[in-house]
Amino acid sequence: MNDMLGKNILVVGASGVLGAAITQLLLSRGAQVMATTSSNDRAGAIPSGASPRLLLDLANPTSVEVMVTYLSQSDAQIDGVVNAAGLVAFGGAADVSAETIARLTSVNLTGPMTLISGIIPNLRKSAARGSVPFIVNISGVVAEGPMANMSAYSATKAGLWAFDQALSRELRKDGIRVIDARPGHTETGLASRAIAGIAPNFPTGMSAEFVASRIVAAIVDGESDLPSTAFSQKS
Fold first, then answer.
1. pLDDT confidence of residue 235
2. Residue 183 lies in a domain
3. Could you tell me if residue 2 is inside a domain?
4. What is the reported pTM?
5. HSE-up (13 A, CA, CB side) for residue 51
6. 101 domain residue, yes or no
7. Which of 66, 133, 183, 193 is packed most tightly, with the most Cβ within 10 A?
8. Beta bridge partners of 32
9. Domain residues for 53?
10. How does DSSP classify residue 46?
């Protein structure tokens, strides 16, 4: 399959379970993938075909600024962006610390917003070359139904969903597609790595491979929104 042949895609969080699965699928379809990881220790988890491998810490505004500057000044070809990075925290609103809220917000919302806003000129150049560039953010099912004891996490993801809705309207005239993906609980291990609180006993979730394949199919097929219902195993 080479339906992404010649496309250069930036995958943010490519060292994570879901990000790596998306990266591998894009590579298998002929894409060139620029892959980011938040730490050098995790770089080995990025699929081997991705290049270059870039360090990006969404929690650090300076790191995001450096990445935007690098991609802008190098005039990197970017035909698509997939943001698969994220953090989760559990606990009631009265129990989550200001530090936790700030970290969740930077990684799940303000970091991606700043990065994507900064590389829109690269995507516009892609459209001018005749491509159909895209942006994918994974806000998740909590953007549709915020959950108790996940109020801070839900708020960051709902904010990302709102950003995507507005961005889609802004960029439509430029020929840039924005896809907001809202899968339900996915077996990536993220809940076990919560930065605060203890995860509830979630039922078994979808596989990362299934969610990744659904997102990549949406990219290839020209879809513009992936609500939670789009991730039905019957879809």
1. 42
2. yes
3. no
4. 0.96
5. 2
6. yes
7. 133
8. 8
9. 8-231
10. S
Q: Note whether residue 84 is domain-resident.
A: yes
- The distance of Cα 139 from the centroid of its chain, to the nearest Å, equals 8
Calpha distance 25→39 (Å, rounded): 23
Instruction: With a cut of 80, say whether residue 11 has pLDDT above it.
Output: yes
Give me the amino acid identity at 176: I
Strand locations in the chain (E): 8-12, 32-37, 53-55, 80-83, 134-138, 177-181, 186-187, 206-207, 225-226
What does the pLDDT look like over 54-94, one tens digit per residue? 999 999 999 999 999 999 998 889 999 999 999 999 999 99
**Average model confidence (pLDDT) for the chain?**
96
Cβ atoms within 10 Å, residue 235: 10
Q: How many residues in the chain?
A: 235
The first and second tokens of residue 13, run together, are 């969080």
The number of domains in the chain is 1
Distance CA 14, CA 42 (A): 9
pLDDT at position 1 is 63
Rounded CA gap, 107 and 109, in Å? Answer: 6
